[in-house]
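How a chain folds remains the central question behind the approach discussed here. This step matters because it turns folding into a mapping between discrete strings. The sequence in question and its structure tokens are set out directly beneath this paragraph.
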Amino acid sequence: MTIPLNRDYVIEQTQALVRINSINSDLEKGAAGEGEIGRYIAAELANMGITPTVQEVEAGRNNIIGVLKGSGTGRSVLLNAHMDTVGVTGMAEPFLGDIREGKLYGRGAYDMKASIAAMLAAMKGFVDGGIKLAGDVLFTTVVDEEYGSKGMEQLVKDFKADAAILTEPTNLRICCAHRGFVWIEVKTRGLAAHGSRYFEGIDANVHMGRILVEIEKLSADLLHREQHPLLGLPSLHVPLIAGGTSQSVYSAFCRAELERRTLPGETVDAVVAEIQRIVDKLSAEDPRFSATVNAFFSRNAYEIEPSAEIVQTVKGAAQTVLGAEPDIYGALWWMDSALLSDAGMKTVIVGPTGDGLHTDEEWVEVESVVDLACILQQSIVDYCGIAG
């Protein structure tokens, strides 16, 4: 069966989407947000005959969903991409969307407006070809992936499918795992006193130093633990620290934020317990030592067995389109796939080829976007089936 795919439409949509400013308004105060791009995507769905659903996440920020209804005799699949981008500092022409030597440039070109264009083109092909599927296809685009994933949290409350394909950039490889993270706040308490009154003051900053020494040891220990076959090792670092109020005053407080990158199977409680044991040890050694540990934000790691049917379906489709078997790998950073998986949907990740995520020169390879659209179409046919 031949499914229509309009190559020019793929490219035009990628350019049109890049030319819309959709910088996440939680990342940058006063930024444009996802309002305009959401309206554009909704209009494109409507133009091809798919009634869009606007799911409000918060004022002015909406997920956009379109359902291509099947006959009800097959399995459903959910396609997903996020609409928001990071900022454009350092970029000369972030919204130009021009093409040079087969690469399309601009903020969000790679992460991940090209993926939205491929999803739109894949859906349009089924509509234009009058192809009736056995199972439903859910086209979903969400807000706020680059900050708090509020869009995906809202999406999975109301929309479910038998499997999901997240179209984050993968260079047309198949991603089956990524690490999670836990953000942990550690506070030490001292006693403020004039810098001359050494017999009264307790230095919270110095006490935090004791913790940092132990954190360094724990970080080194993590590098000797069992590796995940796709993700390697867990890790720990201290990105932020602040304490004290004045040059000549013993610091009454010090606060550090830790980031612990986790592997599948690691829990927040276990990660926090590792840090708590450090605090308990130091407290036992010094009755003047006082500290608290609190996990204030976390996201689970994600993995799916490479043998899972949705993985094999997408892998087979990619091999058909590309003429070679795609690599299976794990990503070190976090993605919304974890929330899809946590919601009970078997999820696999495949996306276009490019470079420059979150940098001042971002681009996507045009032909890889066309390939992605073809992979999505073949995956849909193979997973959802054609209505009899």
